[in-house]
Amino acid sequence: MTARSRFGLAFLLLFVGGLAVGIGGTLVFGPNTGAYDTPRSVYIAQGASLNAAIDSLEQADVLVVPATFRLVARATGWGQQIKPGHYRIAPQQSNYHLLDKLRRGLQDPVRVTIPPGVQPAQLTAVLGRRLAREADAFRAALRDTSLARDLGSAPAHLFGYMLPETYEFYWQTPPETVVRRVKQGFDRFYERELAAAADSLGFTKREVVTLASIVEWEALLDTEKPAIAGVYLNRLNEGWPLQADPTIQYVLLDTKGRRVTRVLYEHLEIDHPYNTYQIQGLPPGPITNPSPSSLRAAAAPERHEYFYFAADGTGGHTFSRTLREHNRAAEKYQRLMDRRQEDSSR
To answer: Rounded CA gap, 147 and 149, in Å?
Structure first.
């Protein structure tokens, strides 16, 4: 081989080697997630294989070329180190950075909004959809006697302390931890905003939550909540039965599994500890998880002389001092409903 040939061969080998290094560098460090606008969520299940993890990335439409991700994952061995969890994957990420995030388990929290005025089945369904456990696991945590006792509550009442807010949890957070964090968040909110006002009324924390839960189901307008709480406070102070229709709805849920569009006289006769047409004072515990506005209203009810209120047909209520005034307001509302029904049937 001549010197010129040897030089040519060396040059070719260097070129091929450089090309290989360049291609390899691109495979490892070049962008391989899409040019989408905002980070995308990917959920990697517990015990997922590399192929399963890649399937999750593809379902989220994250990878541009899945084959190169698989190649780098296998070549580095990092594909066997991928941790389960929820990850927010930024655009234009390299295989190296993506694998590094997944193998180190650098998870991103999931935002979970607890809705107000719901029942345990509804809340646990929300948690089951947003987090890694089934709804039944969260339902079991809410009924856990030792957990409730540790949190200063009872299994029958713990749900009422699930403060409606938006929280951040890691996807695989155990249900017991979720319930504990929400209840502790409620306790901080209570001490910060409600405790002093509740103490001045002589209300315990459970009594505030119980009254607030009734207000939650009674009021459609936040602005009316203090006035409605004031009506119930007046009845309590006078030793009247609370006669709160929301508690009858709770009784029907507990005994028949459903609420009704209209409370009837026959429903008022059901023998139940939450039937405030029969018992004196507040029921044993909350009937739902009240919103912050309902809690504030229960801790600081409006001071007035009203003992009654009736729906006015606009989402609000007419407040009355006497039963006669209340009956007139109720009759006016019923006439309005009758007219609306006639108009809808034409």
So the answer is: 5
* Model pLDDT for residues 133-171, shown as the tens digit of each residue: 999 999 999 999 999 999 999 999 999 999 999 999 999
Beta bridge pairs of residue 40? 89
Q: Which helix (H) or strand (E) holds 85?
A: strand 85-89
Q: Beta strands 110-113 and 40-44: pairing type? A: unpaired
DSSP class of 37? S
The two tokens of residue 332 are 């006016």
Burial bucket for residue 176 (CB in 10 Å: 0-12, 13-18, 19+): middle
Give the Cα separation of 96 and 27 in Å (integer): 9
Those residues whose C-beta lies under 8 Å from the C-beta of residue 188, and which sit 6 or more positions away, are: none
How many whole angstroms separate alpha carbon 236 and alpha carbon 277?
13
Among 236, 237, 225, which residue's Cα sits nearest to residue 317?
225
SS3 of residue 220 by DSSP: coil
Residue showing tokens 């009837």: 264
Residue 309, token pair as written in the block: 């209120």
- Residue given tokens 């409606």 in the structure block: 164
Q: Would you give the end-to-end CA distance of the chain in angstroms?
A: 104
Report the alpha-carbon distance of residue 216 to residue 298 in Å, rounded.
10
* Model confidence pTM above 0.90: no
Band of the pLDDT at 3, cuts 50, 70, 90? low
3-class DSSP assignment, residue 44: strand
